[in-house]
Amino acid sequence: MKKIKKIHIHREGTDTLLYGFIFVAAVALLLWRIETKIPFWLFVAVFGTAYAVVVNFFRCPIRYFPQEDTEGIVVAPADGRVVVIEEVEENTYFHERRLMISIFMSLFNVHANWFPVDGKVKFVKHQDGNFHKAWLPKASEENERADVMITTPDGTDVLCRQVAGAVARRIVTYAKEGEDCYIDEHLGFIKFGSRVDVFLPIGTEVCVKMGQSTTGDQTVIAKLKG
Fold first, then answer.
1. How many CA atoms lie within 13 A of 154 on its CB side?
2. CB-based contact 80:103 (threshold 8 Å)
3. 119 in the Ramachandran plot: left (φ > 0), alpha (ψ -120 to 50) or beta?
4. Residues 6+ positions from 123 with CB-CB distance below 8 Å
5. What is the DSSP letter of 217?
6. Backbone angles phi, psi at 58, to 5 degrees
7. Could you give the angle at the alpha carbon of 59 between the alpha carbons of 41 and 76, nearest 5°?
8. What residues act catalytically?
9. What is the pLDDT of residue 131?
10. Which of 25, 45, 73, 120 is 20 to 30 A distant from 178 in Cα terms?
């Protein structure tokens, strides 16, 4: 059985963490020179905690799905909490009803995103938009988003949508049109609070519940019908 190997810092966080560390260290050094140490300890407590949260945010676990057979399996594309399980009218691409499962990521979750299914990337489209709170229903349609359409080996189209939240201002998508993609591979990254939607055919078996916590590339959220 394949297991999680290790955790490292995602490359998207390298500059943020480096400049953040330099800022914290420089200010802390200046405050240390003051005779009274109260400002120093207050600064270290506040900004040290904030820096630790940001480090946690940019964690990037190396994960492998524990099953060899991934046919029909849909895994969680992100760490977080299930906030939507419902049938919706998807009129941008499918023009029919689809089952939508949405996972909300808080600041304390890993923000790397994984491919939810094996297949081939049909297209990747980015659209600018608003920055509503990510758990709101209108966020999926009105917020900045990146859509990745994946065609599974049996010909099923699955849409994975990265949605920016109220704090997020940058969606990074690694998926490339025409490339093969697999569970275990990174689809992209969203900075600072967001969600990921997966649109599946009606009749797909749902394997999660509302409010359930998910682990990206580990939690099975649905099973496609053959």
1. 11
2. yes
3. left
4. 147, 148, 149, 177
5. T
6. -90, 10
7. 140
8. 194
9. 60
10. 73
The pair of three-digit structure tokens given for residue 57, joined into one six-digit string: 């945010």
CA angle, residues 65, 67, 72, in degrees to nearest 5: 90
Contact partners, residue 174, CB within 8 Å, separation at least 6: 186, 187, 188, 189
More confident residue, 37 or 173: 173
220-223: strand order across its sheet: 73-75, 220-223, 205-206
Q: What is the largest CA-CA distance in the chain?
A: 72
Secondary structure letter of residue 11 according to DSSP = G
Rg (alpha carbons) of the chain, rounded to whole number: 20
Q: Evaluate the CA torsion angle 218, 114, 73, 6 in order and state its sign.
A: negative
- Paired tokens of 181: 């993609």
Those residues whose C-beta lies under 8 Å from the C-beta of residue 129, and which sit 6 or more positions away, are 142, 143, 144, 145, 164
Q: Looking up tokens 């990921």, which residue turns up?
A: 196
Output the pTM of the full model. 0.78
